[in-house]
Amino acid sequence: MDIALFYFLVLGFSIFMYVLLDGFDLGIGILYPWFNQEGERDHLMRSISHVWDGNETWLVFGGVILFAAFPAAYAGITSTFYLPIMLMLFALIFRGVAFEYRFKSNTSRPYWDLAFSAGSAIVAFCQGMLLGSLVQGVPEGTNSLSSLHWVTPFSVFTGFAVMAGYALLASCYLFMKSRGRIQQHAAKLAKRLLLVTVLAMVVVSLWTVISQVEIRQRWFDNYNFLWLSPLPIVTLLVSFFAWKDLNGHTMGDSHHEGRPFWYAAILFLLGFAGLVVGLFPYLIPRQLTFMEAASPDSSLFFLVPGICIFIPLILAYTLWGYRVFSGKVEDYQEGY
Predict the structure, then answer these.
(1) Which of helix, strand or coil describes residue 245?
(2) What pLDDT, on a 0 to 100 scale, did the predictor assign at position 197?
(3) How far apart are CA 122 and CA 108, in angstroms?
(4) pLDDT of 285
(5) Which positions, given as ranges, span the membrane (predicted)?
(6) Contact 213/204 with Cβ under 8 angstroms?
């Protein structure tokens, strides 16, 4: 169990890093329709041009961990959710092509703008639907070729909730990286999206507690809520501080421009922690735990050197890249 738990934690870390880092650049595409004045979309693209592809490294790394360390879960998830996963991957590819071609196009640029925005929205929505379907539970023996069981009111709601969350990350990122009109507009959008995201977190939490007996017992049996109450309390506090910083800027206080982004990141971390509390130790809820899905110990130990090499390596070049391109985005350069 110890080595399997180690890989479960590594998988969780990879998922969170992907959601945080690729979340805000997917959110840039989701926000595209609200930035349509001259030069604004060029600014949005330049703000992520140095990081968007590197951010997706964590998606690949998480997929590798799931495939190598938990092959039974990998087989179950990919076969059950074949259609939304393939739609997500095609949207990611189309989004990447649109990103590259946009910088080199003139007359066709509006079409690439649409492709980039639509691709970003589809990816975020598919990820939200996958999350909602897993939380809600997967009927045994089903597959996506014979059933659309993953399309439910709850999964559709979580799809839109993830879109709102990614857009919140993006607006806070633009608030940190921009100046002038774009920064002011990003602050206004971030305030609205903060309210939508927090409301969505409340609705999803109540929906799962009411509809899922196991999750309700995990939270409320034996006074567990007293031990777990810091999660919702800290979520409300972080939301308040984020609102305060964003509202202060719109009223003329320009201090701490980076804090709202980190508050939004903490919100995602708290939401992720709440999911783990409700679902642990399952990888596929009510079907497969991480212990049951794990590869033989010999295979898991064989993979440890690679994990110890690649996680520090990916973290190092990610941190270095963000450090090199820290500060405000300037609009005088062409392309990248």
Answers:
(1) helix
(2) 95
(3) 21
(4) 83
(5) 6-35, 81-99, 111-130, 150-173, 193-213, 225-243, 263-284, 299-320
(6) no
Check: CB of residue 182 under 8 Å from CB of residue 35: yes
Q: Which residue has the higher pLDDT, 101 or 144?
A: 101
Q: Is 251 helix (H, G, I), strand (E, B) or coil?
A: coil
Lowest mean pLDDT among 124-128, 157-161, 184-188, 225-229: 225-229
Asked if residue 116 lies in contact with residue 98, where contact means CB atoms within 8 angstroms, the answer is yes
Q: What's the whole-number mean pLDDT along residues 118-132?
A: 94
Measured N-to-C along each axis, helices 82-102 and 109-136 cross at an angle, to the nearest 10 degrees, of 150
* Per-residue pLDDT at 334: 54
Residue 335 dihedral angles phi and psi, to the nearest 5°? 60, -130
Distant-in-sequence, close-in-space partners of 247: CB < 8 Å, separation ≥ 6: 191
DSSP 282: E
How far apart CA 237 and CA 91 sit, in angstroms, is 36
| DSSP, residue by residue, 164-218 | HHHHHHHHHHHHHH--HHHHHHHHHHHHHHHHHHHHHHHHHHHHHHHH-HHHHHH
From the list 264, 309, 244, 186, the residue with the least C-alpha distance to 23 is 264
Q: What is the pLDDT of residues 53-66, one digit of tens each?
A: 888 899 999 999 99
Per-residue exposure over 144-161, b if at least 16 CB sit within 10 Å of its own CB, e if not: beeeebbeeebbebbbbb
CA dist., res. 100 & res. 55, Å (int)? 16
Res. 105 pLDDT band, cuts 50 70 90: confident
**Number of residues that make up the chain:** 336
Q: How many CB atoms lie within 10 A of CB 16?
A: 19
Helix (H) or strand (E) holding 290: helix 290-293
Residue 124's region, left for phi above 0, alpha for psi from -120 to 50, else beta, is alpha
Average pLDDT over residues 209-237: 86
| CB environment 52-85: b (16+ within 10 A), e (fewer) | bebbbbbbebbebbbebbbebbbebbeebbeebb
Mean pLDDT of 225-233: 87
